[in-house]
Amino acid sequence: xxxxxxxxxxxxxxxxxxxxxxxxxxxxxxxxxxxxxxxxxxxxxxxxxxxxxxxxxxxxxxxxxxxxxxxxxxxxxxxxxxxxxxxxxxxxxxxxxxxxxxxxxxxxxxxxxxxxxxxxxxxxxxxxxxxxxxxxxxxxxxxxxxxxxxxxxxxxxxxxxxxxxxxxxxxxxxxxxxxxxxxxxxxxxxxxxxxxxxxxxxxxxxxxxxxxxxxxxxxxxxxxxxxxxxxxxxxxxxxxxxxxxxxxxxxxxxxxxxxxxxxxxxxxxxxxxxxxxxxxxxxxxxxxxx
Amino acid sequence: xxxxxxxxxxxxxxxxxxxxxxxxxxxxxxxxxxxxxxxxxxxxxxxxxxxxxxxxxxxxxxxxxxxxxxxxxxxxxxxxxxxxxxxxxxxxxxxxxxxxxxxxxxxxxxxxxxxxxxxxxxxxxxxxxxxxxxxxxxxxxxxxxxxxxxxxxxxxxxxxxxxxxxxxxxxxxxxxxxxxxxxxxxxxxxxxxxxxxxxxxxxxxxxxxxxxxxxxxxxxxxxxxxxxxxxxxxxxxxxxxxxxxxxxxxxxxxxxxxxxxxxxxxxxxxxxxxxxxxxxxxxxxxxxxxxxxxxxxxxxxxxxxxxxxxxxxxxxxxxxxxxxxxxxxxxxxxxxxxxxxxxxxxxxxxxxxxxxxxxxxxxxxxxxxxxxxxxxxxxxxxxxxxxxxxxxxxxxxxxxxxxxxxxxxxxxxxxxxxxxxxxxxxxxxxxxxxxxxxxxxxxxxxxxxxxxxxxxxx
Lengths: 290, 458
Fold this sequence. Notes:
The structure holds two protein chains of two kinds.
Chain A: H1 2-35, H2 53-60, H3 62-93, H4 100-108, H5 115-137, H6 150-178, H7 182-190, H8 195-223, H9 227-233, H10 244-254, H11 258-286
Chain B: H1 2-28, E1 63-68, H2 74-88, E2 91-96, H3 103-112, E3 119-123, H4 124-134, E4 153-154, E5 157-158, E6 160-162, E7 165-173, H5 174-181, H6 193-205, E8 212-213, H7 218-225, H8 228-231, H9 237-249, H10 258-272, H11 285-294, E9 299-303, H12 307-312, E10 321-324, E11 340-344, E12 346-350, H13 357-372, H14 374-383, H15 400-410, E13 414-415, H16 425-437, H17 443-456
Parallel strand pairs in B: 1-2, 1-3, 8-9, 11-13
Antiparallel strand pairs in B: 3-12, 4-5, 6-12, 7-9, 7-10, 7-11
């Protein structure tokens, strides 16, 4: 009786969602993997099976590996800075300072603006506002557009991504801090723990579930970055800031090597899946109950 | 307690709304987009009193779709479609390719979803990629006679309708040059690289410190600059194809290929007098138009598609703008030094796979209407502001850049050559050119990049 009812519930609540997920995620994914084994160019009526030739094409595509390396660099910077910053700000914003709701809303706002718009706004800031500041003050730092130098353009990308992502993570960390039990904090204080010790031994372990989520979100978002990359630098100067996702798109649609692009997308997927899977596994292990 | 909470919620909600309006506010504060299809254009009156075109009445009521990848003529095309519908009863729906989407990607995705447009405006490379699988054969259509020399043949068949001629070169602002030099400027008298450098030097002496604008965009550097090395091989599309095949096959050594070193000599001159020399990769496209219109610079390497930008920057139709050739050397008898490049750029391809016979017939009639009807002829030139590739079209474009190209085409001061290169040529070699422009690579590295690019092609 009970199991029958469960079946009905499952059908009612989960089936529509399952169906959508299946139709728009699983099916295209499997089909995409199949396409990596064919020579389909996006247009042709016939798809010839060519085995792993597309993957050997990926091996030969030096630019892909360069952009993958750059993406790793980007991910490390973004994940670290976003989480440290968001954690610190969330900590400050849960201590009851004046106007903290205003700040919470303010920090979250960048996240509400789409990546494309955000990229254009910042492009204007980097190549026009900064340069005119440089012109009027003579500061070397702002003399030329940040976007015309490979290193500075990379820094610009990191800055904008941090600016955009931090707000979201602050929100999650704030929720985590609000969920900390006053009793535990008080007990820790009575036991003589203060400052850093309290942070390290009490707060951090209790915040682990928030950290798991935030790390996962920042990792996957940073690996898959496309919109900000496109609108802020579009790979400029001379292709030095082209991240993996953008390279995949360019390969498939600009170079029209559909199979190779699809194979690169698949490799990128495996890398992201493995890394974020490991991250969730290890941080989950650290989680404790109060 | 509850009230306090509510107050807080309302307060933070208000703050959010305020912040949002502030931020979206600055989004709308940017300079308006010259390609914005919603922007109002002044209407050019079209005389519709005479119309001798014969319409096929059986097609009345048919719906056709036209995919438009030329954003600046979206409004004009809609007007044209409406005018055609009035006369023929065929409804033409003009679909724009949104910004950031490539026309090819768009048309392929429409094919894959089973709803391709009846007609699509594409680049020549796209037509070549799609023709055999998807396109309707247009060989023998009446308009082909009027477009002689501007047709693209694929295996002896014609699959596309050349919509417009576009040309490029070094745009000059005559008034600025004359004012600075204090004498009349005769563009046709400049026919060598050193004569051009001479003028540049005199302009510098006269106070225009950096008289040239060079766009940093990869499509400009990779396609419009670099492709001169193929197109000036002998000034024809066939010649361009030949040299490309030879480079691919390794029959031509790029290190000793004359056109490449000549091209780089010219590029170096532009680089030297570049207004953005301090930060060439930080150059802003819209600002270049303003600089040329205001007289901060006297030259801008670009094509007739730059007119909307110039006009937005304050240039008037009565002003004298025109093109100088991309000077390759000091040989006065070299065609490249006295002719600018101009060739058909956008092509209309008809769907031959899914569209019904009636739809195809209607689309074919629309193309013929553009070429043969008095209204279509006028609208192509006046409303769309296009340089028509059709001999029978008596109208002349009105903006100075298009007018100059029109004049040069008719005086045989233009060579019709367009290199058909792989679709990522502009992106890949555009990046190499950017590197060279920024002074971060030398001729050897650039040459190697070009060679490597062609070696990788199958």
